[in-house]
Predict the structure.
Amino acid sequence: MARTIFERRRYEKEYYQKNRERLRKRQSFYYHSNLEYRKKAIERAIRSRRRCWENFKIKRLELISKLGGKCEKCGFDNPIALQFHHKLMDGRAKKRSQMYEKAFLADIEKNILDIQLLCANCHIILHGELKNG
Ligand SMILES: [Zn+2]
Ligand SMILES: [Zn+2]
């Protein structure tokens, strides 16, 4: 009897949910006792991380060009050193780990009218002024 891929997926999902604890234990045992498996799992994680990072870079460049592609203060235009300054809520410093998350860019995009594109230099100076001013 041939099952469709959807039926099979659902079956697998249900099976997983029913046997979650047991499967997790077995997987963890397998993971820790099998070097090849562990290597593959790590490679998989790295690949997916890299894909995420590539997507992040593309999206980031897209937003930079949407914002004019250069520092609003001095005109510096190398995207590597361009940063997003949030005019309203920039003080709430985001954790560095969040920088790579899709959510970070989605947030920039959503608030694009409140975002100022600055080079790292001008950004640091501006924040220094905001803090002291
Ligand atoms: Zn600048
Ligand atoms: Zn800022």
Summary: The mean pLDDT is 87.
